[in-house]
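Help needed: design a sequence for this.
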């Protein structure tokens, strides 16, 4: 009988332990449930009470601050300024048209802005804010806030808008921003959600467009709580985006301002380049325009005034323009012959005023001819016949190859729109593009920068910098990104015979400083700052034999669009080159009269870093230059600011 009693006691003890364990688990569960209920009902009571009152949580994108742009000395070129605007979120507004009608009774709304906004409402996601009015006053913003209960979905905001402090001086370099268009969305592979925000601004042309990704930054987001009427009750949390990168350009704002003023309303362009580093110190194109007009959408009237101007103010001629380089190309033809050992510097060619090739006469610009000329005199007096003769010895393939080595026919990597590649033709090119054989006359024309040859002012500046330095200098426009210096582009040695380069530099010096030189009238008197250069005049029309027989019509007697282009390239100082300059005046006539004076003034401004003293100019020019400086001073926003003040 004892055995069963022992088993019963053991079972009882086992049951008691299990019951205790189960009770502990149940107690822990109840405690956890109670803690959770306290969290939801007490700690989170306010949040869930609001949600219970038909509140909703919306997630909205936060546009980042666009990166700003500065010149090499820290002068601001593109900045962001606060801008008050009124936006509406369609899904919060309900009946958008009714809400807009109410809003129009509170603040004045532009009918065009309302029409544009309603069109955006139809094609945009309902949760995206649509701008109804931009650049509104603080008073109007206050009225909207006071009337918020009657305006569901309508929110006053403070945003940032782009402004260009120096206006037209940088229009062709920076370009401008504008609202994202359907065309932009189609061509941009980047599917950044920011681009879907109506009226979000992106770069359209110039540096603003080419550096868009860096300048734009990354968007943030915020969660906001809105009630049943669409009114924002509070901001629950916010994740800030990443501002765009700030860019520092290589351009010198003061020099740029001067160059732009010096070109004035000519249809012209100019480049100033650092011979050693490749830095672009000035890139000017005239006439210009105010990029601020484009930021919020330019009016039809203003846009038509720009597009109908025959001087093409919207074109960045300094990098987009492609022109026959004329006699500025003669250094290339000469270098091709010298490097190939086909001529010596003392060899002479007789110029009677023309050269007959394949039963056709190719004329020199000087009808009576130059007589016997060697390399130096041919360049100094710009004798065409000397280069016709060289071309027959060298051939187009070697001439074009040499042009490429000096940066012609090459698209240079600068962050600007539609940078031209130019053209250095070859036999294969003509057969492929025109379906025709190359003829000897094509080579003769190319020797003096005519025919199929095309070059931009940027390429001509690169060519001149390479002649001056003997190195494969490349242009650089961006100096630093967010303070991180970008590599200079001085380049390695071109591997040219230094004696040949010295001969070319000396001949270019004679062009400007010898009394018989074609640019003697634009010389610099100060010995330490003398420049070396080359004039160029490129024809844009064909001169018939009949016209040549009766006398070629002067440029000033022709319609503007039929006049020759005027060109000039130079480097300075001659003994220690620091700056290379290229100037092209469209239909300006002669390079010596239209382009060389501009280049001389620009070169002096670059070397002195300020308004040059009158003593640097020939005596006969000083009265004219004094008056010119007075006029230009009034045209430059930075004329009275020193380099120290700029920084």
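Sure. Designed sequence:
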């Amino acid at each position: 009988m004892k055995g069963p009693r022992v088993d019963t006691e053991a079972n009882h003890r086992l049951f008691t332990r299990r019951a205790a364990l189960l009770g502990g688990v149940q107690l822990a569960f109840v405690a956890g449930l109670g803690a959770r209920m306290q969290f939801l009902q007490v700690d989170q009571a306010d949040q869930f009470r609001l949600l219970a009152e038909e509140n909703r949580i919306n997630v909205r994108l936060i546009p980042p601050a666009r990166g700003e742009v500065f010149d090499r000395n820290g002068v601001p070129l593109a900045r962001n300024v606060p801008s008050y605007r009124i936006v509406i979120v369609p899904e919060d507004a309900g009946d958008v048209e009714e809400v807009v009608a109410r809003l129009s009774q509170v603040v004045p709304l532009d009918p065009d802005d309302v029409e544009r906004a309603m069109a955006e409402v139809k094609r945009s996601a309902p949760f995206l804010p649509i701008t109804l009015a931009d650049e509104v006053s603080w008073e109007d913003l206050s009225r909207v806030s006071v009337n918020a209960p009657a305006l569901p979905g309508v929110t006053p905001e403070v945003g940032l808008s782009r402004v260009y402090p120096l206006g037209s001086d940088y229009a062709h370099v920076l370009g401008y921003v504008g609202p994202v268009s359907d065309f932009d969305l189609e061509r941009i592979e980047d599917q950044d959600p920011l681009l879907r925000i109506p009226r979000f601004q992106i770069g359209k042309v110039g540096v603003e467009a080419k550096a868009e990704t860096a300048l734009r930054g990354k968007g943030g987001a915020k969660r906001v709580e809105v009630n049943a009427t669409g009114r924002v009750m509070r901001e629950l949390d916010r994740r800030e985006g990443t501002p765009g990168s700030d860019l520092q350009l290589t351009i010198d704002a003061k020099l740029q301002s001067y160059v732009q003023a010096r070109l004035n309303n000519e249809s012209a362009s100019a480049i100033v380049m650092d011979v050693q580093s490749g830095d672009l110190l000035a890139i000017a194109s005239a006439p210009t325009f105010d990029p601020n007009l484009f930021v919020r959408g330019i009016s039809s009237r203003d846009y038509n005034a720009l597009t109908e101007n025959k001087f093409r103010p919207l074109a960045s001629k300094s990098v987009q323009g492609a022109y026959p380089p004329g006699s500025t190309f003669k250094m290339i033809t000469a270098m091709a012959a010298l490097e190939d050992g086909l001529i010596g510097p003392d060899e002479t060619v007789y110029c009677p005023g023309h050269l007959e090739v394949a039963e056709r006469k190719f004329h020199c610009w000087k009808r009576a001819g130059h007589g016997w000329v060697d390399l130096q005199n041919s360049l100094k007096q710009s004798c065409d016949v000397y280069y016709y003769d060289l071309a027959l010895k060298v051939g187009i393939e070697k001439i074009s190859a040499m042009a490429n080595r000096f940066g012609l026919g090459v698209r240079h990597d600068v962050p600007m729109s539609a940078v031209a590649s130019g053209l250095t033709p070859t036999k294969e090119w003509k057969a492929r593009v025109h379906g025709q054989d190359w003829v000897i006359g094509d080579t003769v024309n190319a020797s003096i920068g005519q025919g199929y040859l095309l070059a931009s002012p940027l390429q001509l500046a690169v060519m001149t910098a390479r002649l001056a330095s003997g190195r494969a200098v490349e242009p650089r426009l961006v100096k630093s990104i967010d303070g991180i210096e970008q590599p200079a582009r001085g380049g390695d040695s071109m591997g040219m015979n230094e004696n040949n380069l010295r001969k070319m530099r000396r001949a270019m010096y004679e062009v400007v400083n010898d009394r018989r030189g074609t640019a003697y009238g634009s010389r610099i008197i100060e010995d330490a700052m003398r420049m070396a250069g080359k004039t160029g005049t490129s024809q844009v029309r064909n001169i018939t034999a009949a016209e040549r027989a009766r006398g070629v019509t002067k440029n000033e007697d022709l319609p503007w669009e039929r006049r020759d282009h005027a060109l000039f390239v130079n480097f300075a100082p001659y003994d220690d080159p620091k700056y290379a300059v290229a100037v092209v005046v469209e239909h300006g006539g002669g390079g010596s009269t239209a382009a060389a004076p501009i280049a001389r003034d620009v070169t002096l401004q670059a070397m002195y870093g300020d308004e040059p003293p009158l003593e640097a100019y020939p005596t006969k020019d000083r009265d004219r230059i004094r008056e010119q400086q007075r006029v230009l001073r009034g045209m430059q926003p930075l004329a009275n600011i020193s380099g120290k003040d700029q920084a």
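The first helix runs from residue 2 to 43.
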